[in-house]
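Protein in question kept underneath.
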Amino acid sequence: MKLLHALAFQVVWFACVLGAAGGSSLPGVCAGAVFLALTLFSSERPWDELRFVAQVSFLGIALDSVLGVGGLLAFAAPVPAAPGVAPLWLAVLWASFATLAPRSLSWLQDRLGLAAGLGVLAGPLTYFSATRLGAAEVVGSPALVGVLVAVEYGIALPLILRASRALTPRPEPLESSSETA
């Protein structure tokens, strides 16, 4: 189930990025809405998870907007937004990404150092992949953008994973044989 969830997120990622590159937020918004609805519907604590998704989305939009307003990245923004502010498709991506923490990425919740390392590597990879596909443009120094995104994800991913622990279903403890006798 975790692998299926991770693969479904990749569909959302491509729908958001390719849609934005093609001038439309609609593919990403639709894919994200279905993904989020199914994810929250299957959640043991949907309201708590919705609150978590909103918090992570706010964090991600703020971080991406700093890069945009700072003149380092320009986002394809099919839906008008203030200059530099992260557009709708990025909000959908952050919301969808948040759902990975208590599911597909839950194995990293107790390995925060590894999570930081993966964030440092995967963050820039996803951003530069999105730029190659036309969803964003590096306006500033590519090296500086890469370092800033690496730092962003190196800090944000462990924090997101730590915060998601409360949402991750834990196996029930086994009853001991002395309690059943």
In short: The chain has a mean pLDDT of 90.
